[in-house]
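Incident review: delayed structure delivery

Summary: a single-chain prediction request sat in the queue longer than the usual turnaround. Root cause was a stuck worker, restarted by the on-call engineer. No data loss occurred. The affected request and its eventual output are reproduced below so the record is complete for anyone auditing the incident later.

Affected input:
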Amino acid sequence: MRDAIIIAIANCSTSVFAGFVIFSILGFMSSEINVPVKDVVDSGSGLAFIAYPAAVARMPYPPVWSILFFTMLITLGIDSQFTFVETLATGLFDKFEYLRNRKPTVMICLSIIMFFLGLPMCLGGGVYIFELLNYYAAGLSVLCIAILEVICVSYFYGFKRFMYNIQMDMKIHVPTFLYGYWGATWCFITPVSLALYNFRKLFLALVYIISNQEHGVPISIPKNIQALGWLTTAASVICIPILAAYVVFSRRKGGVR
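Output delivered after worker restart:
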């Protein structure tokens, strides 16, 4: 619990610090090219590969700052890959326990598969694939899965039962203040805030579709390809109710509640 709190605080603090850096650079570029800040560059890849390199090129000793900047990007990418590979591997190890004795082989195979899946983003149209997946696969679907996870743990499994597992089974002392804090955030604040945010994104998507506009994608992507993006969003979310229905049906068929 201590590590989780430290990570959350460090993550938010880093975001605040990065905000000062981002807006300093955008303000500098806005002054240089004499345009409003909002028109300098969009978020995402344009910020990382256009705004920052243009800013460091104007600094004293630009090669030094460029090396530091792109080294930082490489380390960020590597540490994200650690998360992706570990998440996939943990799911496989939990489902197929016999794979735990072959962890090095599994990790190497996952890394090779993900390497080949990422190769299309290095081709001529790779930026379109990247923006499509970045916008649709890494946005709304993650929030939907987070809502379902919080609801399942807090309401279906039960918040009190979950806290009992933490306190009694895991032997983690939870002070009264934090007990109330976790209860408020897991049972109310987090699901409500995520649901409102998702509703806003879906509402804007409906407005874009009705008005025949692009759905906020940083680059111009054809409408039929954006439909593929929505299918990508649904692909990961739809697995949850399908698996839940399968488990419930199997238990009822087997006479297990």
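Verification: The longest helix spans residues 126-169.
Action items: add queue-age alerting; document worker restart procedure.
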